[in-house]
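Subject: Sanity check before I submit

Could someone independently write out the structure tokens for this chain? I want to compare against mine line by line before I put it in a report. The sequence has 172 residues.
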Amino acid sequence: MKKVFKNTAMAVLAALTMGTSLNALAHKVGIVDMQSIYQQVPQTAAIEKTLQGEFAERSQQLEKLQGDIRFEMEKFQRESTTMSEEQKTALRDKIQGMQKELAEKGRPLEQEIKARQNQELAKLQKTIIEAIEAVAKDGDYDEVKLKDATIYFNPKEVTDLSEKVVQRVSKK
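---
Independent answer below. Compare away.
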């Protein structure tokens, strides 16, 4: 009888240990595709529209300057055979001056646009991360990984949370 009790106790203990280790291994993992989220949320288009409006006037000035440079270059090509050396030199100098002005105005504008874009995208990123955390907590996920940083995931075991995140961010 002692032997039966001992074997039964060992079997129960083994079953409990196995059950505990299976629960310890149960790990609910979600995955998000950040690129897809950025493309789908309406805030991305709003940021683009805001920046275009903010820098429209200066961008138009640069586009006009580019058009003027093209016009002067075409003029030089068309009329250089009939121009005197002084006229050619003057036109070359004018074109070079315009190109220098374009570079001097263009680079700072590009940098300013990039800085503002980064500033706005950082705000959006914070909102997206907060949404990911909320979706993960609502779904009792133990971990959420980036799809781009994951080499392989089993779609049966890992849930793509991207659509839920897009819905949550879109409501804000």
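---
OP: Matches mine. For the report I'm noting this point. Residues 2-170 form a domain with the Protein Binding, DinI Protein; Chain A fold (CATH 3.30.910.20).
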